[in-house]
User: What shape does this take?
Amino acid sequence: MLDTNRDLYRGYGLASGSWWALSRPSAIWKYIKLIFAGHGSLKKGKDIRQLGGDVLIDPQGIVRLHSVCATPFDRPKVNAILDVVRGGAGSSD
Assistant: This one.
């Protein structure tokens, strides 16, 4: 499903980062490294302030993981997400 209006995005409490959070030297340095590694671009119409998050919903519709990013780089570790997928302890904000 494509969430072009960002209804689900907002519904799960995801938000845009402040210009201050995005313009800190540590954030700028990480963005520069990502761009040079080929993982980032500034496309026209793209919301560069959009923060990420992870929501895992099981086949029964139960939210098993709900992680909202406060900064551009505070995503959960892949192993933590896989732990939830495998039936381990979950994390919910």
